[in-house]
Design goal:
By secondary structure, this protein is of the alpha/beta class. It has eleven helices and nine strands.
Length: 263
């Protein structure tokens, strides 16, 4: 997609990959980058060929956060200016967080500030053991306003979320797995292979079932058991009526790989 200057987007083999492409700046986020990220995330959501969406950072770091030069404008910004900036910055995070497809962030080097929140916008996170995570907004007299606290509470609990946001302390990949911040951490040299294996398995799964199961997981926390079971029944009706469900059974009985079409 040649129209992007600070990121890239491509679809291959059922995988839509968004890559942050400012490696010389450790993929620090600019206002222009937020806009392009939003376009790419929305494009990936509409891309019928992409069954899973992956977020990566080019070079040694995933994302070092918001480019500090962008923060200088806050000194003279009005309240409306700040609201407009936050709305622009939130757009790609919202697109990723509400996408009906599975989303995966692959994290090496740094995921700091806005970079951490960008990783949190995805459903799954796989990281290098030596990756560094931190909510750095507090150091600049700001709050994490891109959805990070909402996801942090769900993943690590309110007490630890408070600690990470209030102190800005860094967490490596090993601790990130232990506290539930990331799903998996591997040696840096194994990251690409491990991420590709995970992503391929998601892309090979039946898209309808993935989408229905994602909704059940996301909505389950706000439902009582009866509500959840009712939703699960309707999801199962939709899954059982799909061509992919019939293909899954046929492939199993015939000892072959299934060929899912998303219907």
């Amino acid at each position: 997609m040649g129209r992007f200057e600070t990121i890239t987007y491509e679809e291959r083999g059922g995988v839509g990959t968004i890559t942050l492409a400012r490696p010389e700046k450790r993929n620090a986020l600019t206002l222009a980058m937020f806009g392009e990220l939003a376009e790419a995330a929305e494009l990936a959501g509409r891309d019928e060929s992409a069954r899973v969406v992956v977020l990566r950072g080019r070079g040694p770091s995933f994302c070092a956060g918001i480019d500090v030069t962008e923060l200088a404008s806050l000194a003279t910004a009005t309240a409306d200016d700040v609201r407009a900036l936050a709305t622009t910055a939130q757009r790609p995070f919202l697109a990723l967080a509400t996408m009906h497809k599975p989303t995966v962030s692959v994290i090496q080097g740094h995921a700091l500030g806005g970079g951490l929140q960008l990783a949190l916008a995805c459903d799954l996170r796989i990281a290098a053991l030596d990756a560094s995570f931190a909510a750095l907004e507090i150091r600049f007299g700001l709050v994490p306003d891109l959805g990070g606290p909402h996801r942090l509470v769900a993943l690590v609990g309110p007490a630890l979320a408070h600690e990470l946001v209030w102190t800005g302390r860094r967490v490596n990949g090993e601790e990130a797995v232990r506290i539930g911040l990331v799903n998996r951490a591997v040696p840096a040299e194994e990251l690409d292979e491990a991420a590709d294996e995970l992503v391929r398995s998601l892309a090979a799964a039946p898209p309808i079932t993935i989408r229905l199961a994602k909704r059940l997981v996301e909505e389950g926390a706000g439902q009582d058991m009866e509500e959840h079971l009712a939703a699960a029944r309707e999801a199962q009706v939709a899954a059982a009526a799909s061509e992919d469900q019939r293909e899954a059974i046929a492939a199993y009985l015939e000892s072959r790989d299934p060929r899912f079409v998303g219907r």
